[in-house]
Design a protein that fits this description.
The complex is a heterodimer of chains A (about 230) and B (about 220). Chain A is of the alpha/beta class and about 230 residues long. Helix content of chain A is about 20%, strand content about 25%. In chain A, the strands form two sheets. In chain A, strands 1, 2, 3, 4, 8, 9, 10 and 11 form an eight-stranded mixed β-sheet that branches. Chain A has a three-stranded antiparallel β-sheet with strand order 5-7-6. With about 220 residues, chain B is of the alpha/beta class. Chain B contains five helices and 15 strands. In chain B, a hairpin with a 2-residue loop joins strand 13 and strand 14. Classes of the chains: A alpha/beta (about 230), B alpha/beta (about 220). At the A-B interface, helix 5 and helix 6 of A face helix 3 and helix 4 of B.
């Protein structure tokens, strides 16, 4: 079992143009910074990206958008990015807006081997257009399909060479769900350790879901909204 | 005159009950956390994966791995818990969260809400709003009664794309407090300095004044 790769470039080496990729993170929190940079270097394009947000100008998925590498974004909220808005309004970029809980649950369904789930979010809105519905206990639900992603790229706090992952604080967000959902899952971690060094009780994603892992470098961890209070 | 944003938040905070799990949306709803009444213990849920959201960190103690759904740096409290996004919306969907407070561009007399999209103008996405309004047991909307042009935001029907149908239970606006009932909006409180005539004039949807209507205490 050899899951450890040398670095981000090796981890994404076979991702082709046109691939569907899940990218973990909420805003800029818990995003796979190293692999995004490697995808920019690699220059693949026509990507379909499933990610809650689309980064900001000059950081995160914003870097892929600047190089026009993204064909389609599947996201719940994309408001922080002027370049995104420009490409969307000019028709260069497709976007599929999905309610956040639906986005998370469609990832979860893929990781649990369920083809679809029934969800309440969006009933009676344009999100329901064209979707199959079914009634349970007098309420209407939408049939929502599991995502089908070629690759999932996630960022974890700690991982071991078996691919077991632990996330930190709210940097967990979509990362475990996407890690479980990818046909090929790539995990970049802040600290890569040997088997036995992580307590099995604390593992968030067991290594069976993870195909490639490496210790990332130079994390910037940019803060979107720095809010503080003064000490009295 | 009517209420300012802080007063709207303060009035909503009076709806909190001891033991509530509460999700506060971005904007005025976030301010509700500043006015939680003494002796009332609530647990704040942030849909990006935290129960037990604490105040902003002290300067220099910000942690980029610890943010709320508005992407602001925050802190935890004793008893906090982290979880992934599917579990976060799972607990919302399963009715474990007692109260959701969020903003709105429009609310209709039947409880429909629109707050995510202005066609051809603002298309940023719905984030978690559709999940929250579809599932939350109790939804209070914090909003200005009229838009900047002076037009009512309490309408017979929403004109903007909907976020959810028939889900809003209560509105606290700058002019008063309104229950959303099968019979339309019912004004139960008016803000200090606001007349019933003004409320009637600025409410386009079906409005009834409760026989026990009273001036709001804020």
């Amino acid at each position: 079992m050899k899951k450890v790769v040398a670095g981000a470039d090796a981890a994404v080496h076979d991702i082709p143009s046109g691939a569907t990729i899940m990218l973990g993170g909420f805003g800029l929190c818990g995003i796979p910074e190293n692999c995004i940079a490697a995808l920019v270097r690699k220059g693949v394009n026509n990507l379909t990206c499933i990610s809650n947000n689309a980064g900001v100008d000059g950081f995160g998925i914003g870097l892929l958008l600047e190089q026009k590498q993204v064909k389609k974004m599947i996201s719940s909220y994309v408001g922080e990015n002027a370049e995104f808005e420009r490409q969307l309004l000019s028709g260069e970029l497709e976007v599929d807006l999905v309610p956040q809980g639906t986005l998370a649950t469609r990832c979860m369904a893929a990781g649990y081997g369920m083809p679809a789930v029934f969800l309440l979010a969006g009933v009676g809105t344009e999100v329901a257009d064209g979707k199959e519905t079914r009634e349970f206990n007098g309420k209407t639900y939408l049939l929502e399909h599991a995502f089908d992603a070629d690759y999932a790229i996630v960022k974890a706090w700690k991982g071991d060479t078996m691919g077991n992952l632990i996330f930190k604080d709210t940097a967990r967000n979509f990362n475990p769900l996407m890690a479980m959902a990818g046909k090929i899952t790539i995990a970049e971690v802040e600290e890569l350790v040997q088997p036995g060094e992580l307590d099995p009780n604390h593992i968030h994603v067991p290594g069976v879901y993870v195909h490639r892992i490496f210790q990332g470098t130079d994390y910037e961890k940019r803060i979107e909204q720095r809010t503080v209070r003064k000490k009295d | 005159m009517g209420l300012n944003k802080e007063q709207i938040a303060k009035r909503i905070a009076m709806e909190l009950r001891d033991g509530f799990y509460v999700n506060l949306g971005i904007g005025i709803p976030t301010l509700v956390a500043n006015y939680i009444p003494e002796g009332v213990n609530v647990v704040l849920q942030s849909e990006n994966g935290l129960l037990g959201m604490g105040p902003f960190p002290f300067e220099g103690e910000e942690d980029p791995d610890l943010i709320n759904a508005g992407k602001q740096t925050i802190t935890t409290l004793p008893g906090s818990a982290f979880f992934d996004s599917a579990m976060s919306f799972g607990m919302i969907r399963a009715g474990k969260v007692d109260l959701t407070v969020l903003g709105a561009m429009e609310v209709a007399e039947n409880g429909d809400i629109a707050n995510w999209k202005i066609p051809k103008k603002m298309v940023k996405g719905m984030g978690g709003a559709m999940d929250l309004v579809a599932a939350a047991k109790n939804i209070i909307v914090a909003m200005q009664h009229t838009n900047p042009k002076g037009e009512s935001k309490l309408l017979p029907r929403c004109s903007l794309p909907l976020t959810g149908v028939g889900c809003v239970k209560k509105i606290v606006s700058d002019l008063g407090v309104f229950d959303v009932t099968p019979d339309g909006f019912v004004c139960i409180e008016y803000a200090p300095g606001v007349t019933i005539d003004e409320i009637i004039a600025k409410t386009a949807g079906k409005l009834t004044i409760s026989p026990s209507v009273k001036e709001m205490t804020v």
